[in-house]
């Protein structure tokens, strides 16, 4: 059978191992909490980037709509201008024709 001294030594060793295990668990826990915190920060940062990207895309779409409207207006003005010029040419031709006939 074990002697009292051996039993005490075993008990001391068990206590020492328990303390080491407890410390290792705490360090591991801190390590994982740090990692989780870093991951959360990264996720927040990515979410902000996604939101900024969506806002930027909306701005681009709005600019595109404005440019399309301006393009439509300019196309209409150009069409009107061409139409006016053609009408003036026709008027000049008929005026010139009338002058020739008189």
Describe the SSE topology:
Elements: H1 4-101
In this structure, how is the largest beta sheet organized? Answer: none
- Give average pLDDT, whole number: 92
Helix proportion: over 70%
**Through-space gap between termini:** 147 Å
- Cα gyration radius (Å): 43 Å
List unreliable stretches of 5+ residues.
none
Strand tally is 0
Number of helices, where a helix is a run of at least 4 consecutive DSSP H or I residues = 1
Overall SS class: mainly alpha
Order of helices and strands: H
Shape: rod-shaped
Q: What percent strand?
A: under 5%
Provide a quick synopsis of the model.
With 102 residues, the protein is an all-alpha fold. It is built from one helix and no strands.
């Amino acid at each position: 059978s074990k002697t009292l001294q051996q039993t005490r030594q075993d008990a001391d060793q068990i206590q020492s191992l328990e303390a080491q295990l407890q410390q290792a668990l705490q360090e591991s826990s801190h390590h994982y909490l740090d990692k989780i915190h870093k991951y959360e920060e990264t996720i927040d940062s990515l979410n902000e980037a996604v939101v900024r990207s969506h806002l930027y895309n909306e701005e681009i779409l709005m600019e595109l709509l404005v440019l399309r409207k301006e393009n439509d207006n300019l196309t209409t003005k150009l069409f009107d201008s061409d139409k006016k010029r053609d009408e003036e040419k026709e008027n000049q031709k008929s005026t010139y024709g009338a002058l020739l006939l008189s």
